[in-house]
Each structure stands twice: as C-alpha cells, then as structure tokens.
Amino acid sequence: MSFTEYLSERWPTIVRMMAEHAEVVLIAVAIAAVAGIGLGMAVEGRPRAKGLALGVTGTMLTVPSLALFGLLIPLFGLGLTPTITALALYAVFPILRNTITGLESVPSAVEEAARGMGMGRLSRTLRIRLPLAWPVVLTGVRVATIMTVAIAAIAAAVAGPGLGELIFGGLARIGGANALNDTLAGTLGVAVLALLLDVLFVVLSRLTTSRGLR
Amino acid sequence: MTVTAVPERTRPSEEAAGRSLAGLLVTPVFLIIVSAALYLYVRGLDLDAIERRSVNQTVIVDQFIRHIKLVAVSTALVLAIAIPLGVLLTRPGLRRLSAPFLALANVGQAVPSIGVLVLLAVTVGIGFQKAVIALILVSALPVLRNTMVGLRSVDRSLIDAGRGIGLSKTAVLFRVELPLAVPVILASVRVAVILNVGSATLAAFTNAGGLGDLINTGISLNRTPILLTGSVLTAVLAMAADWLIGIVEYVLRPRGI
Q1: Is B114 on the interface with A (CB under 8 A)?
Q2: Least Cα separation, residue B78 to chain A (angstroms)
Q3: How far apart are CA A43 and CA B38, in angstroms?
Q4: Helices (DSSP H) in B45-127: which residue ranges?
Q5: What is the ipTM of this complex?
Q6: Quick check: B108 and B136 in contact, CB under 8 A?
Q7: Domains of chain A by range and CATH?
Q8: Closest residue of B to A183, CA-based?
Q9: pLDDT of chain A along its 214 residues, tens only?
Q10: Touching check for B168 and chain A: CB below 8 Å?
Q11: Given CB atoms, is B103 within the 8 Å cutoff of chain A?
C-alpha cells in the first residue's frame, strides 16, 4: 500500500490520535503555565530564589525523557498520569524563564508611575507588568508546547496516548506491510501538529496582547 | 510562513547553558548521593531470578559503556560534520544557502527523535550502527544552527577591522571569527551531547542497547528495581555529561568574553 493510499484509508484514526496527542500536550502545558507563571512572579527580583528555580527546572530538562517516564511509573503507574506529569515537568522551564525575563524587562519608569498611583506590589505585577510582559511569556508557552509535542511521542512507551502509538506500532510490526506507513504517519503527524500549534500560538498572541503593544 | 517564527531555543539542552561555579559544585555531590541511594536501595532488595538477570554488575556496566559509546561516536561525527558545514554556510559565497538551512533546522525540531530512530529501523535495519546514523540525523540540525547563528552574531566591524589590518579572509576566520564564536561552538557541543544522551536511551527500542534497555525491560516485565536502576543511571549519566561540559565551557571560554 502506498503512503497516499494508506493516508486516505486511515486518516480518521490518524486524526483521532493527533487530537489525543494535542490534548495531552495542551493539558500538560496548561498545568506548566500556571506553575511557571506563578513561580516566575514569586521569584523575580529575588536573585537567589530565581537562580534556584531556574537551576532546578533547567536541570530537569537534561534528564532523558524515557528515564523521566521510567522514574514516574513507580509513583503513578502506566498511562495518562505519568505522561502528563512528565510533560508538565519539562514544560515549566521555558515558561518560567520567559516569565522572569518578561517581568524584569518592564521599564522601571512604568513601575514607578504605577507605584506613584498608589498600586501595591501584587496589583502592579498583575495589572501593569504581566500585561506588558505577556508577549514574552506567551513565547515561553509556545516554546514549551512545541518541545512537549515531540517528547509526547515517547509516551506510548509507557502506554500513553497519541501519535507515538503509530510509531511504536510500526516498530512492533517491523517487516510487516504497514510498518513504514505507520511510522511515517506518526512521525510526520507529530511534526504537522507542532506546526499547527505554532500557528495557533501566533494567533493567540495577536488576540491576547494588549493593544498598545501591537 | 510561521516556520521561521519558531523561537531559537527549543531543544532542552540549549536551555541549560550558563551556570555559576557554585552550581557546578553542587551537581557532583547531588549525583553521588543519588547513585549511592540507588545502590543501597538495590542492595537492600531481595531480587528474584528475572531481576537478577538485568540488575547485576556485568549487565549494568556493559549497557553503561554501550550507552557512552553511542553518545561518543555520534557526537564526534555530528561535530565533525555540522561545525565545518556551519562555517562553510556562513562564508560570503554560500551565505544564500544559510536561510533554507536555518528554516530546515527549525522544522526539524518538530520531528520527534523516536520517529527518526524507528523510521531508520524500519527502512535500513536495527542495531548499533543504524542507531548512530539516527542519532546523527537528530542532532546534526540543532548543532548546525547553533554554529551558524553563533558565527553570524560576530560583529561585522570586527571582521572589517581584521581585513583592514591586512589579514586574509582565512586568517580572519581562524583568528577573529572562530575565537569569538568559541562559546557558541561549545554550546553546540553541549547540544549534541545532551540530545544524544537522550536519544541513545531510545536507541534501545531498535536493539542498539544502552541504558534504555534496562528501562524497557523494567517497563515490559513490570519490575520496579530494573526500571529504577535504568532510569536513575540514565538521568545521572545525562546530568554528569551536562556538568562535565559546563566545566569545559568554564575553562575554555576566552577571557575577553
């Protein structure tokens, strides 16, 4: 069966797996975004806490994904929970880093003005600095998403959902009729999904950036 | 097209650049504690026959060495290919080609390494050599991009100044551009090593061995001791590699920068 024939026959399955893949990634990134932005707001302006937070989450990224999945299995078993946990752990660093960079790059004059208007630290962060830092923060979220899309392909090794099933299926049926088609569909599917999500974030960034910054 | 809009730093390893000296001292202590904890945990267990087949000194040392071989061979080859290619592509004559290569590198980031490994296994075959080819395919583009971006970020006026004092183009490359790009090239080495340590874990799926073998055995036989031994050792190896490169970067970085 040629690849085009394969695609025209299997596309509903492939699209379903792609949707599952996107779902897992987006849930993980959402968790990581809440954690990363919150942590970023808490540690920015405090060099020690900042260094520690960036150091720990950054080191996290050097751990190979299969090993991280492996470490999480004794805690969470197989399936969805270790998958989402691992992906969220990887996704925190880019979001945290960009949140800190974004918040710290807000001109101090702007902050002085807000302080002069009588705003406290929290409301300055939430109402002035975070909206100004938003494009940078969102870039962090986007980087995290694209990175996690590729890593999520390995989740099938721990019985997680998504396009990785096609890749590992192809591996299991090596020499079989559709081994190459399965693998190719899985691999290209991941790349296509990453590009689609990238476009989604460009749109999202336009829609959610404060009008004065565009 | 949004492809070029994919931000520069997407791969894990590129993120972790630049640590303080204090950070460099904490890591080995942490890694030793973790390894010792793993050793004590495994020693304290009453392993059954299946677990003993994987969790024993011969197997662990063999797979550890195999893992390091995979990483060393593929990293050496990637650096030998990608750095000279990056230098070539930033020369005036070939500079037109650099934009497509950068775009390709950006798209390439979206391709999962497990996909490349399995594609190669399905089409070419399984085993150590094929895994090395796959690892090279996975890490070549990030290293190439890193080198190109680094060389292009060298200040034009410094190159002009070099030309102005009568240096040839080649002399400018070796005496101005490359020394200034050393931090970037070292970052490329880091990218290559970290990516390869991670992908080498996955190479176990295509019969190339390595520590991933222990993890896979642990998962498929549902044996936590095997799983933890493989996972912890892989993580320790990756962090140790990252740490070592950190030291090398600290030592080799030109004083002026």
Answers
A1: yes
A2: 19
A3: 32
A4: 49-54, 57-89, 98-108, 113-123
A5: 0.85
A6: no
A7: 3-213 (1.10.3720.10)
A8: B119
A9: 788 888 888 889 999 999 999 999 999 999 999 999 999 999 988 888 998 899 889 888 889 999 999 999 989 988 899 999 999 999 999 999 999 999 988 888 888 898 899 888 888 888 888 999 999 999 999 999 999 999 999 988 888 888 999 999 888 888 788 888 899 999 999 999 999 999 999 999 888 887 777 6
A10: no
A11: no
Check residue A35 and give its pLDDT: 96
Among A65, A151, A183, beta carbon nearest to B119? A183
Contact A182, B143 (CB under 8 A): no
Determine, for residues A67 and B215 on separate chains, whether the beta-carbon distance falls below 8 Å.
Answer: yes
Residues B77, A68, A44, CA angle at the centre, nearest 5°? 95
Residue found by looking up tokens 């390494």 in the block: B113
Place of tokens 């204090």: B22
Instruction: Nearest chain A residue to B198 by CA: give it.
Output: A64
Q: Digits of tens for pLDDT over chain B (257 positions)?
A: 333 333 333 333 333 444 556 667 788 888 999 999 988 888 888 778 778 777 788 888 888 999 999 999 999 999 999 888 888 888 777 778 888 888 887 777 788 889 988 988 888 888 888 889 999 988 888 888 888 888 887 777 888 888 888 888 888 888 888 788 788 778 888 888 988 998 899 988 888 888 988 998 888 888 888 999 999 999 999 999 988 888 888 787 766 65
Eight-state DSSP code of residue B174: I
Q: Which two tokens stand for residue A19?
A: 């949707």
The architecture in CATH of the region B21-252 reads: Orthogonal Bundle (1.10)
Q: Do A190 and B115 touch (CB under 8 A)?
A: yes
- Closest partner residue to B227 (CB to CB) among A74, A183, A198 is A74
The burial class, CB within 10 Å (0-12 / 13-18 / 19+), for A212 is exposed
**Residue from A102, A83, A92 nearest A35 by CA:** A92
Residues 6+ apart with CB under 8 A from A171: A179, A183, B118, B121, B122, B205, B206
Nearest CA in chain B to A165: B115
Binding-face residues of B in 200-219 toward A, CB within 8 A: 201-202, 205-206, 211-212, 215-216, 218-219
User: Helix, strand, or coil here: A63?
Assistant: coil
